[in-house]
Structures
1.
Amino acid sequence: MDRKDEHVSLAKAFHKPKSNSFDDVRIIHQSIPLSNYDETSIATHLLGYELSAPFFINAMTGGSEKTGYINQELAILARETGLMIATGSISAALRDPSVAKTFTIVRDENPEGIILANIGAGSSLENAKRGIDLIQANALQIHLNAPQELVMPEGDRDFSNWLSLIEEIVKGVDVPVIVKEVGFGMSRQTIHQLIDVGVTTIDIAGSGGTSFTQIENARRRKREFSYLNDFGITTVQSLLEANEVPGLFNLIASGGIRNSYDIFKALCFGVKTVGISASILNQLLVNDLEDTIALVKQWQQELVSLYTLVGAKTTEDLKKVPLFLTGENKDWCQARGIDYTKYSQR
């Protein structure tokens, strides 16, 4: 089976609703929100664009006939719902032009959409430019996936030049750059490293959703890395880390987003937008495109209600919503020297 097809098949097999770090985030209810549903906007601003909704279709797949069809449906979904969309890692098309169509189909189906090209952190500036040009991308995602590479039988083993390559790409391309994890989360130290080389938009992509170490371990004949299946920093822990980093940078959350309430909670940590992969992919694979479009539109409507519930007229207002942190989130704050009470005292 093609590796990309295998990834999709395993992601579907391992996808199941489960508890994650968002369950240990509670909204402190205010009984008089002083808001009006009809005057509420869920729009957000990122990369110089106004996005009509504060979530998007994050990087998933591409590189085979089957995944090309999935990308086509995801592009239609993005077009019909007004969502920004990222392709899967476009490196496959740069190595093998015969699979380029499985990525360019996203632009073909969504010619006016905001589309992100995705490449790995070990990519050269030349390949970054080629990836951007291939789909006329509005921005570039660079993904960090060291644990996945080490578990992947055919994965990379040398990460020593990642930071210098990222810096070269940030300085050398003509579109905005996002650096994202792939479900292992980010510490404040990593975020500082990225800011120091010029990165201004960061997707912390924490654990709690799809585990690529679990997927890659399932592909091995000897599954000796099963202890890494839950490796990483959770999405909420990563957001807590990011909020300890001073300075101006755009923050994106992804990893384990199950529904509109998870999107809402992530936004309350001050992120610009929220990326969703597995929940959308599973909906598409189990049901169909029409049902997935309906689900996304339902989430958009639910977010308007949730904003209204807390008195937020705009996405920016959600940063003022008081939060109560419990469980591992509270433990993480105590261990890492983070004042968790500041979230409840907003």
Note: The mean pLDDT is 94.
2.
Amino acid sequence: MDLPPKTALLPIDMQQAFDHAPWPRRWNRDLDRNGRALLAAWRGAGLPLIHVRHDSVQTGSSLRPGLPGHAYRPGFQPLPDEPVVAKSVNAAFIGTDLDLRLRRLGIEAIMAFGISTDMCVSTSVRVGANLGYRMIVVGDACDCFDLTGQAGQTIPAEAIHAAHLATLAYEFATVCTTEEALAAITSSAG
């Protein structure tokens, strides 16, 4: 995979709330390791990135500003010169200035990862594609939760993750692994 010129990295909702109730079981034990590797390589190459953080406005949400769960996961805190876009809905483009920031930077492609594959990552990627950006999702640097189906059955997070990546790859994005993304970052810096 080649990294398109003028690509920005979008870590989405890499926050601590997702490790605790009321959030269901997550499955990807490599999420933090893979995400930190992407972030380190991206920073090392001096490429543009914008952190996306969920600032919930819902009463009782563990993602509300000021609560412990709102904090970034270890290793995902933005550096002082790195911009943060705060959202209160699933799509990073809705109710934010993300599109404006990206256009001012001349960004044509976005590499995204984070939590959760089927909600904020997928929704942001779909909207980004509809706005004309070339979207790339680093699948093994995303994670999601077990969910309850209409018949009351548990749908495993792994199945939800696989289905959403397949849908994104079919119409909205290129889906790659962390290894492929790191190789693309290295070759673009060289």
Note: The chain has a mean pLDDT of 95.
3.
Amino acid sequence: MKGSDVAELRAFAAIIEHGNFARAAEWLGVSPSALSQTIRRLEVRLGQRLLNRTTRATRPTEAGQQLYERIRPALKEITEAQAQLQNQQGELGGRLRINASRTGAAYALAPHLTSFAQSYPRIEVEIVVSDRLEDVVESECDAGLRLGENLEQDMVGVPLSDPLRWIAVASPAYLARAGTPEHPADLKEHACINMRWPSGGHLYQWEFERDGQSVQVAVTGPLCTNDVATRLRAVKDGLGIGYFLEPEAWELLSSGDIVEVLGPWCAKEPGFSLYYPGNRLVTPQLRAFLDHIAACRRAEMRE
């Protein structure tokens, strides 16, 4: 049996035991949509409908109940064997290697690292920073961190941040000199600080949305760089308009050195997600991190 088969069966059992997709997804440390995809793969593989889903609850079909009764003892044995091995080893240790973009590492991972280290002092966390969409298997990482919209279908994604906005910003001095754009199309008449995708090498098209209307703009300007700090400095110094994830610009926005433009056109998008291949068994170190993140997000929601 492949590791992905075990993961699918464990996900199926969790839904029955927790009563619905939302609670099972929270317990597993995945998003409800990712869990739904896992169950669809299992049903296709087995050629049977396993769950009846309503607005209030999820119940197994007759075939699903039979499957659950057969696999429950085996899954229990697997869980107990893992717990016994960890107890024999003492406190959980080892290495957890995560590939992350520069911004994701700073704004989505970093806030959780201290509390995780306090809970698991023997786990060594290594953050491999790369703005390319790396293959976590080839890069020998346990997981990766990227914006949710960039995840491939065979990856299990666990939300790590709230939805984020891409925003256009400029200095007051630049706007006083060049005017303020009212529509994304106006950017073609402005000096813009460009950036190039690390993967593929093409220039990034700035994306906007308002009232169901989506607009992509290919901008031009005096500077192109993938370095966030350099782009922010250029915008602050009045070289042109820049395009950033909102957290990247918070400090300069708060100080008034730069201001947002085209605000109504800057819609929220999926935030950062921790992802890992759905066909691989989750390491104990990664499972501990996923559980820790889930606990942190629950605590934040209660505040």
Note: The radius of gyration is 23 Å.
